[in-house]
Protein backbone atom coordinates (compact mmCIF):
# COMPACT_ATOMS: atom_id res chain seq x y z
CA UNK A 1 0.00 0.00 0.00
CA UNK A 2 1.05 3.56 -0.64
CA UNK A 3 1.88 5.87 2.20
CA UNK A 4 -0.71 8.08 3.90
CA UNK A 5 0.28 11.75 3.96
CA UNK A 6 -1.42 14.52 5.94
CA UNK A 7 -1.04 17.78 4.01
CA UNK A 8 -2.09 21.43 3.90
CA UNK A 9 -0.87 24.98 3.81
CA UNK A 10 -0.68 26.29 7.37
CA UNK A 11 -0.02 29.51 9.27
CA UNK A 12 3.08 29.82 11.43
CA UNK A 13 0.85 29.35 14.47
CA UNK A 14 -0.76 26.15 13.17
CA UNK A 15 -4.04 27.14 11.49
CA UNK A 16 -5.35 26.06 8.07
CA UNK A 17 -8.13 28.67 7.99
CA UNK A 18 -9.55 31.43 10.11
CA UNK A 19 -12.69 30.92 12.24
CA UNK A 20 -14.87 31.62 9.16
CA UNK A 21 -13.10 28.93 7.09
CA UNK A 22 -11.22 31.51 5.00
CA UNK A 23 -7.59 30.65 4.21
CA UNK A 24 -6.64 34.31 3.89
CA UNK A 25 -3.00 34.62 2.76
CA UNK A 26 -2.18 30.91 3.27
CA UNK A 27 -2.27 30.32 -0.48
CA UNK A 28 -0.44 33.49 -1.57
CA UNK A 29 2.62 31.35 -2.29
CA UNK A 30 0.58 29.53 -4.96
CA UNK A 31 0.23 32.84 -6.80
CA UNK A 32 3.62 34.42 -6.11
CA UNK A 33 5.88 32.86 -8.72
CA UNK A 34 6.39 32.59 -12.43
CA UNK A 35 6.27 28.79 -12.92
CA UNK A 36 2.86 27.20 -13.66
CA UNK A 37 2.12 24.48 -11.09
CA UNK A 38 -0.70 22.94 -13.13
CA UNK A 39 -2.56 23.41 -16.42
CA UNK A 40 -5.02 25.94 -15.00
CA UNK A 41 -2.75 28.90 -15.59
CA UNK A 42 -3.81 30.20 -12.17
CA UNK A 43 -1.32 28.54 -9.85
CA UNK A 44 2.09 30.15 -10.35
CA UNK A 45 4.88 29.28 -7.92
CA UNK A 46 8.61 29.71 -7.60
CA UNK A 47 10.84 27.16 -9.33
CA UNK A 48 11.87 25.88 -5.90
CA UNK A 49 8.25 25.25 -4.88
CA UNK A 50 7.46 23.67 -8.24
CA UNK A 51 10.40 21.25 -7.92
CA UNK A 52 9.11 20.16 -4.51
CA UNK A 53 5.33 20.21 -4.94
CA UNK A 54 4.76 18.98 -8.52
CA UNK A 55 6.47 15.57 -8.06
CA UNK A 56 4.47 15.05 -4.86
CA UNK A 57 1.17 15.98 -6.53
CA UNK A 58 1.96 13.51 -9.32
CA UNK A 59 2.19 10.69 -6.74
CA UNK A 60 -1.24 11.33 -5.19
CA UNK A 61 -3.89 8.82 -6.19
CA UNK A 62 -6.65 9.83 -3.76
CA UNK A 63 -7.43 12.59 -1.31
CA UNK A 64 -9.46 12.09 1.86
CA UNK A 65 -11.55 15.05 3.02
CA UNK A 66 -14.34 15.58 5.50
CA UNK A 67 -17.91 16.40 4.62
CA UNK A 68 -17.38 20.00 5.71
CA UNK A 69 -14.70 20.56 3.05
CA UNK A 70 -16.81 18.72 0.48
CA UNK A 71 -19.81 20.95 1.22
CA UNK A 72 -17.74 24.17 1.24
CA UNK A 73 -16.33 23.41 -2.22
CA UNK A 74 -19.49 21.75 -3.56
CA UNK A 75 -17.23 18.79 -4.19
CA UNK A 76 -15.30 20.81 -6.77
CA UNK A 77 -18.31 20.28 -9.07
CA UNK A 78 -17.48 16.58 -9.29
CA UNK A 79 -13.93 17.09 -10.55
CA UNK A 80 -11.22 16.14 -8.05
CA UNK A 81 -8.82 19.02 -7.31
CA UNK A 82 -5.26 19.31 -8.65
CA UNK A 83 -5.60 16.42 -11.09
CA UNK A 84 -6.14 13.82 -8.36
CA UNK A 85 -7.91 10.65 -9.53
CA UNK A 86 -10.22 9.91 -6.59
CA UNK A 87 -11.71 11.68 -3.58
CA UNK A 88 -12.90 9.85 -0.47
CA UNK A 89 -15.29 11.84 1.71
CA UNK A 90 -15.71 10.98 5.39
CA UNK A 91 -19.38 11.48 6.20
CA UNK A 92 -22.35 9.99 8.01
CA UNK A 93 -24.72 11.33 5.35
CA UNK A 94 -23.54 9.56 2.17
CA UNK A 95 -23.49 10.89 -1.39
CA UNK A 96 -25.86 13.79 -1.98
CA UNK A 97 -28.84 12.74 -4.05
CA UNK A 98 -28.43 13.45 -7.80
CA UNK A 99 -24.94 14.94 -7.25
CA UNK A 100 -22.63 14.12 -10.20
CA UNK A 101 -23.27 10.33 -10.19
CA UNK A 102 -20.28 9.72 -12.49
CA UNK A 103 -17.80 11.66 -10.33
CA UNK A 104 -14.93 9.64 -8.79
CA UNK A 105 -16.03 10.50 -5.25
CA UNK A 106 -16.59 7.84 -2.60
CA UNK A 107 -18.56 8.49 0.58
CA UNK A 108 -17.67 6.42 3.66
CA UNK A 109 -18.44 6.49 7.36
CA UNK A 110 -15.30 6.84 9.50
CA UNK A 111 -11.62 7.56 8.94
CA UNK A 112 -10.47 3.94 9.07
CA UNK A 113 -12.93 3.06 6.30
CA UNK A 114 -11.79 6.13 4.34
CA UNK A 115 -8.12 5.13 4.45
CA UNK A 116 -8.96 1.51 3.54
CA UNK A 117 -11.12 2.66 0.60
CA UNK A 118 -8.48 5.10 -0.64
CA UNK A 119 -5.72 2.49 -0.44
CA UNK A 120 -7.94 0.00 -2.28
CA UNK A 121 -8.49 2.57 -5.04
CA UNK A 122 -4.87 3.66 -5.51
CA UNK A 123 -2.66 0.71 -4.57
CA UNK A 124 0.94 1.92 -4.20
CA UNK A 125 0.20 5.58 -4.89
CA UNK A 126 0.00 8.19 -2.13
CA UNK A 127 -3.18 8.66 -0.14
CA UNK A 128 -3.40 12.29 0.88
CA UNK A 129 -5.43 13.31 3.92
CA UNK A 130 -6.53 16.92 4.21
CA UNK A 131 -5.31 18.45 7.45
CA UNK A 132 -7.91 19.59 9.97
CA UNK A 133 -10.42 17.52 11.91
CA UNK A 134 -10.36 14.50 9.58
CA UNK A 135 -6.57 14.61 9.30
CA UNK A 136 -6.28 14.75 13.08
CA UNK A 137 -8.59 11.74 13.40
CA UNK A 138 -6.50 9.76 10.90
CA UNK A 139 -3.36 10.69 12.86
CA UNK A 140 -5.01 9.65 16.14
CA UNK A 141 -5.95 6.31 14.55
CA UNK A 142 -2.25 5.69 13.83
CA UNK A 143 -2.75 5.71 10.05
CA UNK A 144 -0.62 8.72 9.01
CA UNK A 145 2.88 7.93 7.74
CA UNK A 146 4.01 11.45 6.89
CA UNK A 147 3.10 15.06 7.65
CA UNK A 148 3.66 17.74 4.99
CA UNK A 149 3.19 21.42 5.68
CA UNK A 150 3.48 24.45 3.45
CA UNK A 151 4.04 27.08 6.14
CA UNK A 152 2.94 30.56 5.11
CA UNK A 153 4.36 33.66 6.84
CA UNK A 154 1.17 34.68 8.62
CA UNK A 155 -0.15 34.41 12.20
CA UNK A 156 -3.92 33.86 12.52
CA UNK A 157 -4.23 33.74 16.31
CA UNK A 158 -7.38 31.59 16.10
CA UNK A 159 -9.12 29.43 13.55
CA UNK A 160 -9.17 25.88 12.21
CA UNK A 161 -6.19 23.94 13.54
CA UNK A 162 -3.90 21.92 11.26
CA UNK A 163 -4.23 18.85 13.49
CA UNK A 164 -7.89 19.42 14.28
CA UNK A 165 -8.87 18.55 17.81
CA UNK A 166 -6.03 16.13 18.54
CA UNK A 167 -5.78 15.99 22.32
CA UNK A 168 -2.62 14.02 22.96
CA UNK A 169 1.04 14.15 22.00
CA UNK A 170 2.38 12.59 18.79
CA UNK A 171 6.08 12.52 17.98
CA UNK A 172 7.39 13.23 14.51
CA UNK A 173 10.89 12.43 13.26
CA UNK A 174 13.29 15.25 12.48
CA UNK A 175 12.25 17.06 9.32
CA UNK A 176 13.31 15.18 6.19
CA UNK A 177 12.74 18.23 4.02
CA UNK A 178 13.02 21.95 4.76
CA UNK A 179 12.74 24.04 1.60
CA UNK A 180 12.30 27.78 1.39
CA UNK A 181 10.11 28.94 -1.47
CA UNK A 182 8.62 32.34 -2.21
CA UNK A 183 6.18 33.19 0.65
CA UNK A 184 6.34 29.58 1.94
CA UNK A 185 8.46 27.11 3.86
CA UNK A 186 7.91 23.48 2.79
CA UNK A 187 8.33 20.93 5.59
CA UNK A 188 8.07 17.15 5.58
CA UNK A 189 8.16 14.86 8.63
CA UNK A 190 7.71 11.13 9.11
CA UNK A 191 5.42 10.12 11.97
CA UNK A 192 7.38 8.31 14.66
CA UNK A 193 6.09 4.81 15.24
UniProtKB/TrEMBL annotation:
InterPro entries to which the protein is assigned, alphabetical: DHFR-like_dom_sf (IPR024072), RibDG_C (IPR002734)
BP GO terms, sorted: riboflavin biosynthetic process
Name of protein: Dihydrofolate reductase family protein
Organism: Natronoglycomyces albus
A GO term, aspect molecular function: 5-amino-6-(5-phosphoribosylamino)uracil reductase activity
Name of a matching Pfam family: RibD_C
Domain Bacterial bifunctional deaminase-reductase C-terminal: 3-175
Amino acid sequence: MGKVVMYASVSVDGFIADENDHPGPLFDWLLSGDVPLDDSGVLMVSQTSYDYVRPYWDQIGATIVGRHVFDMTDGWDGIPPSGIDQVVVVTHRGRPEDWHPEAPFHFVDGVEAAVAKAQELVGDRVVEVAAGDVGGQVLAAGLVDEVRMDVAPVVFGTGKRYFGSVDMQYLLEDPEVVIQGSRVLHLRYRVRR
